[in-house]
Amino acid sequence: MKYILVTGGVISGIGKGVIASSLGTILKSSGVRVTSIKIDPYINIDAGTFSPYEHGEVFVLNDGGEVDLDLGNYERFLDITLHRDNNITTGKIYQTVIDRERRGDYLGKTVQVVPHITDAIQEWVERVAKVPVDGDNATPDICIIELGGTIGDIEGMPFVEAFRQFQFRVKRENFCCVHVSLVPQPKATGEQKTKPTQSSIRELRGLGLSPDLIVCRSTVTITDAVREKVSLFCHVEPQQVMSIHDLSSIYRVPLLLENQGASAYIMRRLNLHPHLNMRPKKFMADWKELADRYDRLLREVTIALVGKYTKLEDAYASVIKALQHSALAVSHRLNLKYIEAADLEMSMLAEDPCRYHEAWHQLVSANGILVPGGFGVRGTEGKVLAVNWARTKKVPFLGVCLGLQCAAIEFARNVLDMKEANSTEFFPETKHPVVIDMPEHNTGMMGGTMRLGLRKTLFKTDKSIMKKLYGNSDYVEERHRHRYEINPELVEQFEAKGMRFVGRSEDGERMEILELDDHPFFVGVQYHPEYISRPMKPSPPYFGFLLASSGKLQGFVNRGFRKSPNMEYSESSDDELCKITEGNGALSPSTASGIKMRASAGTVKGD
Questions:
Q1: Is there a single domain that holds both residue 273 and residue 370?
Q2: Catalytic residue among 325, 477, 528, 578
């Protein structure tokens, strides 16, 4: 097993996650099996109880693990399926060591950071690195480990010490260190400064780790003089200094690293040999086409994201990525408008009329309206108002998790005449509980108790736009994260008035997908389809939503599906969204409609 440790210096948020993901991408394109681990030095057991403003979104894995959003980057870039143990936190490590001490595993010894905590970290990394993530049960060749935070942080010291020891444990030929550092360019001088990078690497070396590659982050590409200076003062060859400047999209980062010889250096440094039988011949060519497409798109589609955490983009990281993937697939540039849900409420009209009118102006001028997930009562009435606009004005709408629940509440109030309809999450004493809690997921403990992870949704009818978007599959498996559900006692009343719950849980009790009759595209899903969206395999609900928002949905649906379609998105005309070529054999879930579905979903039955 080979290991790459990615560390960061000077400032946090330097882009270590994207660099780590990009390194994995170019190594995978070279025929190497890649897995990844993210280390977060906080005490929390997992990311599940974080506020979105504190640490961005909570990313959910197939096994229900609530993890750091960087694992979403790894899955999207590498098209792999990670597990909860691929996210290491200080809390997890200390809990493991304390449990061992309570069992008497240390035979009465004094338990210390060194060697017990550091040993536990090394054992965890070695164990998780061997777990297959590609779906073929093959052991990975290389594990990319991202150490969160900045070198010098007191929280990260046990991890740095663990990897100082680890490099000798696994031998130098199996361990490589990549350091990502900032090269600022003050406006006053206009000169790129290397001193912060020199100081950061000096500190890293003082802690016992020497970088093999130095990735310089800057606003513009570093000059040859700067590269030579970093090389001279940081004890590496000039070719070991990489420059990653601000780019038009993150899809260009792997291409830039590859052009500078990153994968060739790592393959030599770690003595890696590609698996010729698994080498994806067109992978980097397809990736370049994706990056080029992003840059040259001219047509625009405007989506209004009506949320509660719009001050921080990372709070909706996966949602934004899923929208971008689908916008690329329909050959449109995404113009995303963030609308704070509370700004749409009447109380804001009295408090700040300008904010109120600006929010409504952005909403009514959008081509499509998205209401994502969230928790708590703040802003929910604004979300309900946004749903009402989308429903009555026939604007394409997608509701995710809480968005589905808000759609049901709005429909109950304005169509079923349940004026006090609400969720027991927001108003426990409501006379019309349209959304109710799931007692087994409201245990009084916050962490890890929601309905989490990959679960099956069965389609109950063939008359469903979502079923068509999923390739006419009888069921689909998607990732969940919620505590509340649609009240099954009211479903009959909803469906009598045209709001159909076309997808349900295996026992039929939980409403998973809703669609509205007589509407261009009005869909709500209880699960989070954004978690398994990929750059070249967009999520079906988001793909359908962008098709509808760009006026292409009906043409796509009318084409239907053939056996074994290989869909290639085309920019040639609005009338020809895609071209479908015939092949042999059954339609696999990974290629159905050119959209990613989980391999465990079984064979898709197409027409």
A1: no
A2: 528
* Whole-structure pTM value: 0.87
Q: How far apart are CA 434 and CA 408, in angstroms?
A: 7
Say which of 75, 258, 530, 578 is annotated catalytic: 530
- Same-domain status, 267 and 314: no
- Do 382 and 530 lie in one domain? The reply is yes
- Residue 500: CATH number of its domain: 3.40.50.880
Q: Are residues 397 and 463 in the same domain?
A: yes
Those residues with Cβ within 8 angstroms of residue 205's Cβ, 6 or more apart along the chain or in another chain:
none
Cβ pair 171, 1 in contact under 8 A: no
234 belongs to the catalytic site: no
pLDDT in tens, 283-339: 678 888 888 888 888 899 999 999 988 888 888 999 999 999 999 999 999 999 999
**531 and 373 in contact (C-beta within 8 Å)?**
no
Residue pair 37/146 in contact by the 8 Å Cβ criterion:
yes
Residue 588, in any domain of the structure = no
Domain extent at residue 440: 297-550
Number of structural domains in the chain: 2
Q: Residue type at 535?
A: P
SS3 per-residue string spanning 371-387: ECCCCCCCCHHHHHHHH
346 and 284, same structural domain? no
Phi, psi torsion values for 451, nearest 5 degrees? -80, 105
The residue among 550, 567, 586 that closes a domain is 550
Residue 432 a catalytic site member:
no
Give residue 599's pLDDT: 32
Strands 2-8, 175-182: pairing kind: parallel
Residues 2, 135: Cα–Cα separation, whole Å: 20
**Radius of gyration of the chain from Cα atoms?**
25
**CA 599, 601, 602, 605 torsion: positive or negative?**
negative
Annotated catalytic residue 401: yes
Active-site pick, 401, 406, 410, 515: 401
Residue 546, domain member (yes or no): yes
